[in-house]
């Protein structure tokens, strides 16, 4: 009986000793209370780096107090919502898939393997945009930009900050709140209640958020490509003119480098142009890109279901048929008709398609100028080659005539007794005769070659 209390104390001391070493000393609770400091952030929200809005102080304190390692596979993203608030965050693959509701294979499109590819994919709740250096995931409420600190992407971020806040000033928070009363169905726009067609008309007065982001991305990419084409034109024409004047190894090397840059730039422009053309050819794909419209319709359907459930419980029996009346059926049919309306997106894509087509035509004109210069240089080289061949033929004819004279001189140079050796003054006459004969043979063969048009005039 005497060992029981002592053993109990030892067990208590054993339990308290590791507990005191593992629990850190918590700071004194501030005005926000101790609950905010003890509750950990959600694991899927990522590690917040910097905030662009007003509510980033508490999250920043959480990051400053944690000395955790970077999550494996996490990448730097910028979150930019429709109200102009931006922040830098680190998300891993699972967090992006959960937040944007996209399949995992879409994240491979944003990887380094497809660095210069151009893809615009429509998903149920998001749009995956991969245009040159811009890699983003756009939803109806926010856009997630991958690697926002790159030099090219910073221009896209600046354009978002400049253009989105003034365009997104209208309020849409209560866009899908429904009010089912005795007269008709209404939608709340935050300030006043409007009928559904009038509310939808108010939302269609400007482009949805996802199309504003897509427009800015296309504008930045097209401006970047136009700038590269302008630099290419500025460098191309002087180099080609110099090559036309002087065909040298240095000038040929400059043209070769210029032509390789032109081919790569043309392929990049062609990829963006083909992607836009693919979207323009398929109305279903364009309709899937209307994320805000689908979001509003989902909110309306949820509100209709909620109103139907509440009315089925609390309303009187005479009011029940009003929920499935011809008015709601006409509203549904009008929404179904609006699903096929892709005029706004079509006009947006056609504008940049024409711009890219003009950029492509500029590159093709430079390539045609390069081809013309190469043809001119080849003509010059062929002309010089023909002149060398003619010179070689002329020298060959002269060598044949001289060889005949040398042959005759060799015959008489032998130590053979001959009566011509004893005649005085015969040497000059003999040498002059065989030389004149050689010249005559040369002129005859040369004339024959000109007659056969083997030599130029």
From TrEMBL:
GO MF terms held by the record: magnesium ion transmembrane transporter activity
TM segment ranges: 393-414, 426-449
Cellular localisation: Membrane
Coiled-coil annotated spans: 255-289
Annotated spans, Disordered: 1-51, 316-335
Signal peptide (from-to): none
Entries under PANTHER family matching the protein: MAGNESIUM TRANSPORTER MRS2-4-RELATED, RNA SPLICING PROTEIN MRS2, MITOCHONDRIAL
Record protein name field: Magnesium transporter
